[in-house]
Design goal:
With 533 residues, this protein is α/β, with parallel strands linked by helices. Helix content is 53%, strand content 10%. The strands form five sheets. A seven-stranded parallel sheet has the order 5-4-3-6-7-8-13, sandwiched between helices. Helix 10 runs antiparallel to helix 11. The longest helix has 23 residues. Bound molecules: ligand F7E.
């Protein structure tokens, strides 16, 4: 049974406006409620939307409103007496605890100090705001229950709650300058029923959401943050994505969440559910050569995807937005370079659909910082590598081929332009710079590079030397298939600003990491060959 079938003739306009959103609402609901209830919940969402169609605040076609209804339905669906009892028990336990554990660099705080800060912040609120916060946060009431008590719609109650929560945060911070991470943890641990997404969590770990979690940088960053005491959520695309299992085997602490940079509603849902302190946008179509054959998809994922994620952060974070954002910008934006070395002030001249998409992402990040005051930073990272680097990128392609040649599994390696040069660093060092950017008081943009330049010929020298071969020419063939319509000839970065402001330095040199990659590839190839025997 669907509402649309029953009511079709009564509102063509409704159908025109909302029919289009049915698939994404359905996908949203399906991800969150148990299978046999899905159709009912979707039908109810549309029934409510249809009944209140005329009263929907303008613009009436705002699909976010429809998602608001869906969220509340999902929240209602999930609510149970058992859950509610567990929640109040947990709140009572937390309130009794003598000490708030350490968060990041902030030391432990006695509960009394925390209580005092909370009381002060509560006193700074208007009576109506206090009422809604007490009801929803402390008593665990749903927005629908709050609405019944206030005599307004659930939607209005939710809005009122959000406003109150934001003002509370503001007042709390005014009394506790060092308490950003702790406050977010505190208020979100007390916000189990908000919009049906966030659930109560124990502890006081800061939360990070990482897009592109299955890539090289996502995996290094997740490990770094987990080591620093973060709860890490990795966004993953598609159903049963096999890469998800690989990542979880490698770093079991990561919690995976569904979402797609090409789907705004899934990003809103992810940000809503995770309630992150920090969002790292590492997701992209990152292979420059591929971007020439899939330019539109590249623009959508690597360019407009940034805009969508920032929109999700803007919408969920509300006024006085506390979510910090990192955008993985790139040296490819410099393209046909205007100066050597390239720094934060060097003009951009991208040479590929990938580069142009990243320039869009860069300026969008800047724009959300300036327009909405979001703590949003761009890391302009030069090439960085590791044993986890994808086999399509030149340096890993070379180390893997060298390993196979040394084991007699392959005779030659086919490459494109050997005369280009890049500034290569170690990915493990570069994720440290990302994190440092988000710990600054003010958002900004930083070049992250080693300042050293290596041509592809030099990469071949180093890799072949690792297996004792000085003259690699018999092993390398040039193949036009690996050439690009437009090339970036030489990149080398000036990371002085990152050094001065972030105190960041690369620790591993390129020859060191490349040697390690050859060793690792030999091991991998031996293991594979062993498995085949
Ligand atoms: O190419 C040349 C190729 O694909 C490097 C991405 O992580 O870094 C990376 O982009 C150079 C180019 O990386 C082959 O023409 C020669 O000049 O390894 P790449 P990239 O294009 O520099 C930046 C910072 C990013 O942001 C990107 O996401 O090597 N080259 N022969 C070759 N490249 C490849 N892939 N394969 C060859 O056979």
């Amino acid at each position: 049974m669907t509402v649309l079938e029953i009511e079709e003739d009564r509102s063509a306009r409704f159908e025109a406006l909302y029919g289009a959103h049915r698939p994404s609402i359905a996908a949203y609901v399906r991800r969150r409620v148990i299978e046999h209830d899905v159709e009912d919940v979707i039908a109810q969402v549309f029934l409510i939307a249809w009944r209140r169609f005329a009263a929907i605040p303008s613009p009436p076609e705002d699909r976010l409103w429809l998602f608001g209804v869906a969220r509340r339905m999902v929240a209602d669906h999930r609510r149970s007496t058992v859950r509610r009892r567990r929640l109040s028990q947990r709140l009572a336990e937390e309130a009794r605890g003598p000490v708030w554990p350490q968060v990041g660099s902030v030391g432990p705080v006695g509960f009394e100090t925390m209580q005092w800060r909370v009381d002060r912040a509560m006193q700074a609120l208007r009576p109506g705001e206090r009422e809604v916060l007490r009801l929803v946060l402390w008593d665990g009431a749903s927005h629908a229950e709050a609405a019944a008590l206030f005599g307004c719609t659930a939607n209005a109650a939710e809005l009122r709650y959000r406003r109150a929560r934001n003002r509370f945060r503001e007042a709390f911070l005014a009394g506790a300058p060092a308490g950003r991470a702790r406050l977010q943890e505190f208020s979100s641990s007390l916000a189990p029923r908000v919009s049906g997404g966030a659930q109560p969590r124990g502890g006081v770990m800061p939360r990070a959401l990482i897009t592109g979690i299955t890539g090289q940088d996502g995996r290094y960053l997740a490990e770094l943050l987990i080591g620093k005491g973060y709860q890490v959520h990795g966004m993953i695309r598609g159903q049963n994505n096999p890469k998800g299992r690989i990542v979880q085997d490698e770093v079991p602490e990561i919690e995976l969440i569904n979402g797609d940079l090409t789907d705004l509603s899934s990003l809103i849902a992810a940000v809503e559910q995770v309630q992150p302190d920090e969002v790292y946008n590492l997701g992209a179509i990152s292979f420059v050569k591929l971007s020439f054959s899939q330019p539109e998809l590249t623009a959508d994922v690597s360019g407009t995807g940034v805009l969508r994620l920032l929109e999700a952060i803007r919408i969920v974070g509300g006024t006085n937005n506390r979510i910090r954002f990192y955008q993985a910008a790139t040296s490819e934006m410099f393209g046909k370079v205007r100066e050597i070395p390239q720094s934060e002030t060097t003009p951009f001249h991208p040479r590929s659909p990938y580069g142009t998409a990243k320039v869009f992402g860069y300026y969008t990040t800047l724009n959300y910082r300036e327009s909405y005051g979001i703590h949003a930073s761009n890391g302009i990272l030069f090439n960085h590598t590791s044993p986890r680097r994808g086999l399509e990128f030149v340096e890993r392609k070379i180390t893997n081929a060298v390993a196979r040649i040394s084991l007699g599994l392959q005779d030659t390696v086919a490459l494109g332009n050997l005369d280009t040069s890049r500034d290569f660093g170690y990915a493990g060092d570069y994720v440290e710079a990302m994190w440092r950017m988000l710990q600054q008081d003010d958002p900004s943009d930083f070049v992250v590079a080693t300042g050293t330049r290596w041509s592809i010929r030099q990469v071949l020298d180093l890799a072949f030397q690792a297996i004792g071969i000085e003259d690699w020419s018999p092993y390398v063939v040039i193949d036009d298939r690996f050439l690009r319509p437009a090339e970036v000839d030489e990149l080398v970065g000036d990371a002085s600003r990152a050094r001065e402001v972030l105190g960041w330095e690369p620790k591993v040199t390129f020859p060191e990491i490349l040697k390690e990659m050859v060793r690792n590839d030999i091991e991998l190839e031996q293991a594979k060959a062993g498995g085949r025997e």
